[in-house]
Amino acid sequence: MAKDLSKIAKQKKIKYFLISFVDLFGVLRSKLVPAEAIKEMQKNGAGFAGFATWLDMTPADSDMFAIPDPDSLIQIPWNKEVGWLASDLWMNGKPVEASPRVMLKKQIKKLSNNNMTLKSGVECEYFLINPEGTAIADKRDIQSKPCYDQSALMRQYELIKEICDAMLKLGWGPYQNDHEDANGQFEMNWNYSDSLTTADRHVFFKFMVKTIAEKHGLRATFMPKLFEDLTGNGCHAHVSLWSGNKNLFLDKGDKLGLTRLAYNFLGGILNSAEALSAFFNPSINSYRRIDAPVTTSGATWSPSKISYTGNNRTHMIRVPDPGRFELRLMDGSANPYLLQAGILAAGIDGIEKKRDPGQPLFVNMYTEGDNYPNIKRLPADLEHALECLSDSEVLLSAFGEKNITSYLKLKENELKDFNSKDTFSKKDEITNWEKTNTLDC
Ligand SMILES: [Mg+2]
């Protein structure tokens, strides 16, 4: 029996609910609904005009309805009279296939049919900047190697504490907060969970960080690359497959601590990496972070080529510990649902086709990568990534041709708009178009 949101509102003194969804571009959209009306909305959903969002619809389409998932309820820690809800989109009595949360749930179902669950954790890097978006917020944060800088971290203590306290209250199990490798850059980690829970929390985390930063007179951005000379915002994911309490990736007898199943899953991701970039690095700006010139800190910490290794951060996939691996391709503009859905789709294909990832490579890819010309490079720009997606039999069959066509159409329109105003070159300065369209991603 689903939780009764109307009853919960009374118990928890919630006056309003945000019935929210994320469109294909990862934009978080909502209706604010008084608790008095939640009973009806829980059943039939809140109405939206699909064309007004980044979904492939027309103004003539009938209303779509966001039906909230009561299990996703978050009582907003800094405004307890509001409850936040993630929703699935429905139209004409059917789920909207090309909506990201529905796309993810379909992949989860496929895996659960084989008694497996993906567990994942995400590491969302962000910058604290001035409200205009022109410079980092802390003018004293100028070390050339600023990673883990205690003073710069503690100058933001009030803000970071408020976010971490919120996660503690919500039961996410946050366990560390730090200053990252770029001036003005931070990361906060909370416990991994099943992929849908992690995706919902990822959506909420971005909203929470931006909102709390605003409260403190600052702005937070997850934009992949805001400053040419500084490390960009990655969004790495640690993944493992489970059956009940058993980690199906863990083999203590293997040199990296992985099972054959894990290698096949990993092999699937390597195989589809170029096409996955269209989901994992979905903005024009994303391609300034991948295969980027060295930053002032000495490294970009982002991958250039499609390779895997042990505990070595210069590769696209790192195996830091037995029983899981870290995928380092994604950036801060990735749609939280398509991020998890993409991992699942490519990984399931790897299992089904028993894809062999080959031997891990134990070299510094930043300095020695050119010695391995047979290892493929990641796409150089969004246009190339979209081409790879349109050619990907794996992702076309996992998500359906119609959904991929919708995604490609919207992204190609975005590229057209950009190309009519500017040109993309990693050597040139970051364009105003990128800043206007990606700062609040
Ligand atoms: Mg990091």
Q: How many separate domains?
A: 2
Secondary-structure element sequence?
HEEHEEEEEHEHHEEEHEEEHEEEHHHHHH
Bound molecules: magnesium ion
CATH architecture of the largest domain: 2-Layer Sandwich
Question: Could you tell me the strand content as a percent range?
Answer: 15-25%
- Using the coordinates above, name the CATH class of the largest domain: Alpha Beta
Distance between the termini: 36 Å
Given as residue ranges, the uncertain stretches (5+ residues, pLDDT < 50) are none
Q: How many H/I helices? A: 13
Q: Give the structural class.
A: alpha+beta
Q: How are the elements arranged and paired?
A:
Layout: H1 5-12, E1 16-22, E2 28-34, H2 38-44, E3 46-48, E4 64-68, E5 74-75, E6 82-91, E7 94-95, H3 100-112, E8 117-129, H4 150-154, H5 157-170, E9 174-179, E10 185-190, E11 193-194, H6 195-215, E12 219-221, E13 235-243, E14 246-247, H7 260-280, E15 308-309, E16 317-318, E17 325-327, H8 336-352, H9 365-368, H10 382-390, H11 393-399, H12 401-419, H13 432-438
